[in-house]
TrEMBL record:
Name by which UniProt lists this protein: Isomerase/hydrolase
E.C. no: 3.-.-.-
InterPro entries (alphabetical): Fumarylacetoacetase-like_C (IPR011234), Fumarylacetoacetase_C_sf (IPR036663)
One Gene Ontology MF term: metal ion binding
Record lineage: Bacteria, Pseudomonadati, Pseudomonadota, Gammaproteobacteria, Pseudomonadales
Keywords, alphabetical: Hydrolase, Isomerase, Metal-binding
Family: Belongs to the hydratase/decarboxylase family.
Gene responsible for this protein: ycgM
Domain Fumarylacetoacetase-like C-terminal, first and last residues per copy: 19-220
Species name: Pseudomonas putida (strain ATCC 47054 / DSM 6125 / CFBP 8728 / NCIMB 11950 / KT2440)
UniProt superkingdom: Bacteria
Length: 221
């Protein structure tokens, strides 16, 4: 299925996307809350573009497969390809937008996979595992090392972070990714989640924010 996704300024991109490149444990406090070691180098994994759904109108979760955890993240949309060893200027020029995204995780499934030393795809790549609201223009932020992100569930702030807290800042992170595999226009980068992750329940009302710049309401159907 292909559908359109809208920027706040009206620009449209089309799904399914090529890929969603993610970094795990990029906030020290999040690693600690799950009793995970803090990585000594970026921990990367990829979600297929087919797992992306829009936040508008609400989204479904596969509750029958166990606990479904929310992880709010700053999503970076690339408007130009990057490969080999891009400079800081090339990375910043390639970024076209930002959004407060949800990286959903089947936590019970992931725990069993980790116990066996197996990859996480079954826990991270199911249909609907990446929830994206509209992007705002990259020009909305002068400093990519100071981008706030927040998730509120049923009126309670559950996660409240900032790119300043990242172990791997946005530009060096994307440079590291591009050094290992090509990034394409339309790819989305999920930059890691701050502490405070937890389970969603059907009926939850939520607000996704890049505070002061963008705010979107959604719900779990």
């Amino acid at each position: 299925m292909s559908y359109q996704h809208q920027y706040v300024d009206g620009t449209r991109i089309h799904f399914p996307l090529g890929k969603v490149v993610c970094i795990g444990r990029n906030y020290a406090e999040h690693a600690k809350e799950l009793d995970n070691p803090i990585p000594t180098e970026p921990l990367l994994f990829i979600k297929p573009g087919s797992c992306v759904v829009p936040a508008e109108g609400g989204f479904k979760i596969p509750a029958e497969r166990g606990s479904v955890h929310y992880e709010v993240e700053i999503a970076v949309l690339l408007g130009k390809p990057l490969s080999t060893h891009p400079s800081e200027e090339e990375v910043l020029d390639a970024i076209s937008g930002y959004a407060p995204a949800l990286d959903l995780t089947l936590r019970d499934v992931q725990a069993k996979l980790k116990e066996k030393g197996l990859p996480w795809e079954l826990a991270k790549c199911f249909d609907g595992a990446c929830v994206l609201p509209p992007f705002v223009s990259a020009a909305s932020f002068e400093d990519v090392t100071d981008i706030p992100v927040r998730l509120t569930v049923n009126g309670e702030v559950r996660q409240d972070g900032n790119s300043a807290m990242m172990l791997n800042p946005i530009v060096p992170m994307i440079q590291y990714m591009a050094a290992h595999f090509s990034l394409q226009a339309g790819d989305v980068i999920l930059t890691g989640t701050p502490a405070g992750v937890g389970p969603f329940n059907v009926g939850d009302e939520l607000v996704l924010e890049l505070p002061g710049v963008s705010r979107f309401e959604s719900r779990v159907l």
